[in-house]
Amino acid sequence: MKKIIYVMLLFCIISTNAAAQEVFSEMLKKSKAIVESPTSTEMQKRCSQFKVDALTYMAMKMREEMPDSSAFLLDRQAYSLNNFVSLYISTLLDYRDAIQKDQIEIIKLFMDASFSNPLFNDPDGELVLSYFANSECLTRFSLDTDWPKAYIAVATQLKKLKQKSEEQ
C-alpha cells in the first residue's frame, strides 16, 4: 500500500512540474506571437517584448544559478511577471487623466518595486537595467526582479496611495 502511495505522490510531483513548465512556455509563446503579429499595437508589442526578454533572462539565470530549482518557481515568477505588467498598464490607464506629476509617481512606484526586489543580484547592470535605464521604454523595469515580491510591494504602495488620496 505504501508503494502505491509513493508512486502516486511521485506521479503528482512530476505532473505538477510539467504543468508549471507549460505555463511558462505558454506565456513565452503568446508573448512572442504578439511581438511578431502585424496586427498588434505598438504598446502590445513593447510590453510583450519586455515579457519575452524577462522570461528568457529568468530561465537563463535559473539554469546558471539555481539548476536544482523546480519548474514551479519558474512558473510562479512568470505568472507574477504577467500580473505585474498587467497591473502597471491598468494603473497607467486609470491615471491617464491625472496630472503629469501623479503619472510620474505611479511609474516610479513600479520601477522602484522592480529594482528593489532582485531575484539573482546579478552584477551585470548593463543587461539587467537595459529597460530600466531607457527612458523610451514603456516597461522600465529591471530584468533581475523577484516578480512575486515586486508585485506585492507595488500593490501595497498603490493601496497606500489610494488611501492617502481618499483622505484628502
Give the structure's gist in a few sentences.
The chain has 6 helices and no strands. The chain is mainly α.
User: What's the SSE pattern?
Assistant: HHHHHH
The domain tally reads 1
* Major beta sheet summary: none
Number of helices: 6
Structural class: mainly alpha
Uncertain segments: 1-18
Helix content: over 70%
Distance between the termini: 65 Å
The shape, in one word, is globular
What is the strand tally? Answer: 0
Beta-strand proportion: under 5%
Rg of Cα set: 18 Å
Residue-averaged pLDDT? 89
Question: Could you explain how this protein is built, in words?
Answer:
The chain has 168 residues and is an all-alpha fold. The chain has one domain. The protein is 74% helix and 0% strand. The chain contains six helices and no strands. Helix 1 (2-36) packs across helix 3 (71-94) and helix 2 (42-65) runs antiparallel to helix 3.
